[in-house]
Amino acid sequence: MRVLGIETSCDETAVAVVEDGADGRRCLAHALSSQIEEHRPFGGVVPEIAARSHLDRLDRLVEQAMTDAGLEFGDLDGIAATAGPGLIGGVIVGVMTAKALASVHGKPFIAVNHLEGHALTARFTDGVVYPYLLLLVSGGHCQVLEVKGVGEYRRLGTTLDDAAGECFDKTAKMLGLGFPGGPAVERAAQSGRADRFSLPRPLKGRAGCDFSFSGMKTAVRHTVEALPPGSLRARDADDLAASLQRAVVAHIVDRCKNAFAMAETRPTTFVAAGGVAANTSLRTALTDLATDQGIPFVVPPIELCTDNAVMIAWAGLERLGLGLTDPLDFKPKPRWPLDAANA
Ligand code: KG4
Ligand code: ZN
Hints:
This protein is α/β, with parallel strands linked by helices. It is built from eleven helices and ten strands. The chain folds into two domains: 2-120 and 304-342, ATPase, nucleotide binding domain (Nucleotidyltransferase, domain 5), CATH 3.30.420.40; 130-300, ATPase, nucleotide binding domain (Nucleotidyltransferase, domain 5, 2-Layer Sandwich), CATH 3.30.420. It has helices at residues 36-39, 47-69, 88-105, 114-126, 164-174, 181-190, 214-226, 234-262, 280-293, 302-305, 310-321; strands at 2-7, 12-21, 24-34, 78-84, 109-113, 132-137, 142-149, 152-158, 270-273, 297-298. Helix 5 (164-174) packs across helix 6 (181-190), helix 6 crosses helix 8 and helix 8 runs parallel beside helix 9. It is globular and about 65 Å long.
């Protein structure tokens, strides 16, 4: 089976073709174009600019992916696109393109939930077997899910306020480290002292595995404001970045510990996904946590943790394999929780 996947829900325009056959799972092409430079002057993603930019780039990327894969459209078994959640202008661009390709070439259309893309990536990269425990940490989400099968998710906890990525992004902005924030904070943290500033540890000792990041963000702001005017020197910024990163990692580990006890079935694997899972110190801490629990920890390579089209093509392929396709009047969804209980 071969599926083309399109991702346009945030600031990456991406098209991929994946195959699952006798020789196993393979990515045949991945054409990705980042809009970071267009959004940088605004210090964050501007939805209107993102939508127009997806429109400008997508056709060319589809062509490039098909050329790189060495395929004709007739060789594909389905066309998948992120149909939500995300910035709706961009999602519409991707969904309309996928529907047009599906309609013209007489192929099934598969509407993929962006979060399901992140959730199933570890099955493509490492063949992880259900059920598994998933920590999904990105710019817009921070949740823990029990993944029991395609479309079968039980949410164990979620953030009560900001997402983890948002916390990194806003901290980077306050420290003048630039955009995108996560990698900038991680870089600064490498030369900083994590014990210089004491930041709050929200919900510590409390049951459940909900998250909260707004208190840490506020504490960073108060710390910056308390420094003598104009004195946010590189040293301070590095130390604050290191302190923040340490607090975020400790909070995530503390909450995930509870999740293991909350799972209905013993998970085969602990999986992390989403852009923040690119963070090395978080990866190390989660590896230790999984080891303590006696199960393996799997995190996809960084380029498949951040937004990409391989995960959308793969989720589309898994759905297609189960006969789960969508009608051409499927409406993109700006908000689309993964678990039915919260839909
Ligand atoms: O999954 P993703 O690419 O997009 C969303 O669906 O949100 O995640 C982007 C988020 C951003 O907030 C970015 O700052 C964060 O992931 N991020 C990181 C790192 N790399 C990306 N956060 C911490 N450390 C990193 N190395
Ligand atoms: Zn994402």
